[in-house]
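yo

u said u wanted the structure for the complex thing, so here. seqs first:
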Amino acid sequence: EAQVTQNPRYLITVTGKKLTVTCSQNMNHEYMSWYRQDPGLGLRQIYYSMNVEVTDKGDVPEGYKVSRKEKRNFPLILESPSPNQTSLYFCASKPGHLYNEQFFGPGTRLTVL
Amino acid sequence: SQQGEEDPQALSIQEGENATMNCSYKTSINNLQWYRQNSGRGLVHLILIRSNEREKHSGRLRVTLDTSKKSSSLLITASRAADTASYFCATDARETSGSRLTFGEGTQLTVNP
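structre next:
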């Protein structure tokens, strides 16, 4: 089944403890992206990647890192999480940056205490 | 400020009625997309309208686009309880052409049986 998967789906952690949220897609998509969703703010883009080893900042990149070493995976790294990073995170992919529809993962609900 | 703002923020209707949601945006766009999100889950692409189109249909969905007013509307006809979800517009700005989508804050639609 064609899909975008994220792990973990739920995570409660403490301030300063490094964590990684994984994202994987099995559709051979070139483009991948991370969003966070907060009440009243909609989805905001954190980082995106147009292809392997090509990443760029979105609207809210502060406090996050990403890497794209292989096409299928696009992990989101929080080196030192803070409570304001408590949010619902979505990974998305699409075949190429000129393609329109994005395919979303199921989301990761992160709570930073 | 946020590109892509929807109104109303919340809409409650009876089954069988039509639901109309509006979206405004600020910059020149290549296309505008509508996504649906069931509670806390990933977004699903519904329909796309290009900047040179004025109206588009897909099943019970009708989307209009007025580039002079920088606004779009999504009409869901003959609504069903299963249409209960949040609906987001997302713009693909001309200046970033395909590399980024900017989402609005969403409209929460409740369809009462």
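Residues 53 and 68 of chain A are 5 Å apart (CA to CA). The mean pLDDT of chain A is 95.
cya
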